[in-house]
Amino acid sequence: MLAYLIRRLFAAAVMLAVIILVVFSIFFLVPKWAGVDIATSFVGKQADPAAVNAVREKLGLSDPIYSQVWEFFKGIFAGRTYAAGGDVTRCAAPCFGYSFRSEQAVWPVLTDRFPVTLALALGAAVLWLVFGVAAGVLSALKRGSLWDRSAMVVALGGVSLPIYFTGLLSLAIFSYGLKWIDAQYVPIGDSFTGWLGGMILPWITLAFLYAAMYARITRATMLEILGEDYIRTARAKGLREQTVIGKHAMRSTMTPILTMLGMDLGALIGGAILTETTFSLPGLGQKVLDSIKTQDLPFILGVTLITSVAVLIANLVVDILYAVIDPRVRLA
C-alpha cells in the first residue's frame, strides 16, 4: 500500500507541474503568439500607455520565456514581487496572480469565497451520492418494475433539465410561493440556521442534476455485475442476498462511481457558476463570471488554477480509495 501511495503522490506532483505549465501557456504564451497585448489584458483597454508599460515591466513580459515560467512557478510556491521602477507590489505565497485593476492579490479574494463553493459542492455531493446510488441499486434489483421505470424517468428529467431552470423553479415554488425556505444567503458566522436555510435549495437543485446521472450509471453497472460468474457463485454458496449485494456487487459498482465523483467534485470546487449565479451565492463561480464580464484576467487565471488543482487532488483521493475498495489496484 505504501509503494502504491508513493507512486500516486509522485504522479500527482508531476501532473501538478504540467498543469501549472499548461495554464501559464494558455494565459501568457498563446495570446502572445496570437498577437494579443497581454499587458493590456491585465489592466484593461481603457488604461493609459504608461500603466500598460508599467504592468508589462512588472510581469516581465519582455524577459525570456524560461524566465517568465520560472517566475510564475516561484510565485505560486514562494510568492512574487512585481516591480517597475520605484513601484513595487508584493504578492505573498501562494501567489495566483495580482489584479492591477482592483489592486488586489488574487489568492486572498478567492480564499474568502472558497468556503461557499466548497460547502455547496460537498453538501450536494452527499445528497447525490446517497439518493442517486440508492435509486440506481434499487432500480437494478427491481428491473422492469414500476419503481425502476419511474426512477429512470425522473433521472432522465434530471439530466435533461438545465440547472438554471430547476433552480429558478425551486425558488419560485418553495421560497417565493410557499415561503417554506428563505433562500437568502447568510454567512455561517452570522447565523448557522440562516446559512443552512440559504444552502438547502442550492444543494437540492445541484444534487438533482448529478443524482440523476449517478442513478443511471449505478443501475447500468449493477445490472452488468449481477450477471457475472462470481455473483452467481456467491449465491450458489447460499450467501444471503444482502451479503451478495453489499459485499460483492457494490464493491465493483463503486469503481466507476468513484471515478465520476473525483471529476465532478473537483470541477465543482472550482466553481458551480450556474448554481451560484441562480441563488446569488458569493462563491468562486460567481466571482469568475464577474471577472469574465469585466475582463479581469488574473482572477480567471486564479480560478482556473484552483479548479485544475482541485480535480487533481480529487482524483488522487479516488486513486487511494480504489486501493481500499479493491486491493488488486495496488499492484497496478
TrEMBL record:
UniProt keyword annotations, A-Z: Cell membrane, Membrane, Transmembrane, Transmembrane helix, Transport
Transmembrane segment boundaries: 9-30, 116-141, 153-174, 194-215, 257-279, 299-325
Keyword Transport: yes
InterPro entries linked to this entry: BPD_transp_1_N, MetI-like, MetI-like_sf
Pfam families associated with the record: BPD_transp_1, BPD_transp_1_N
Entry membrane topology: Multi-pass membrane protein
PROSITE patterns in the cross-refs: ABC_TM1
Localisation per UniProt entry: Cell membrane
SUPFAM superfamilies in the cross-refs: MetI-like
All residue ranges annotated as the ABC transmembrane type-1 domain in the record: 114-322
Family the entry assigns: Belongs to the binding-protein-dependent transport system permease family.
Protein name per the record: ABC transporter permease
Organism name: Streptomyces tropicalis
